[in-house]
Amino acid sequence: MPRFSECWRCGKTSASVACLSCEVAKYCSNKCKINDVARHTDAECRPVSVINTCLSCRKVGTQLQKCTGCYRVFYCDVTCQKNHRTQHKAECKRIVDKVKLLASELDRYFPAYFARGCIVHYYWGNVPAYDYLNLLENEGVDYSFPINILVLGVGDLRNVVLTCASLPKHFTSKVNFTLNDSDRCVLARLVLLLYMMIKCDSSASNVITEIWYSLSLSEKTYNYLCASLNGLLQLKSASDFKFATCGLIIVDDSHFKKLQEIWRKWLHVKVEGTKIIANRREEAMKADSGSFFGKINYYNCIPREHVASAKKYMEDGGFRRTSKCSFAENSTLTGPPIMCEDAPFTYAVPTSVLPFVGWDYIEVEKFKHNKSLVTMFGNYIEHKLSCFMEKLTSKQVRFDIILGDCLKIDEYLKKEEKYDRILTSNLMDYILLPELLRTYSDKLNRDNPFSTLITECQNWVNFCPDADVSMMPFTTPVQTAHFRDIVMQDTNDPVLANDGGTTFREYLDNLNEWQDYLRALFYVFQKRYNSGRSGSSKLPILKDLGSEFQLRLRDGARNENRIVFFKPVVNQRRVTMITGLERYLEWVVN
Question: Model pTM?
Answer without folding.
Answer: 0.96
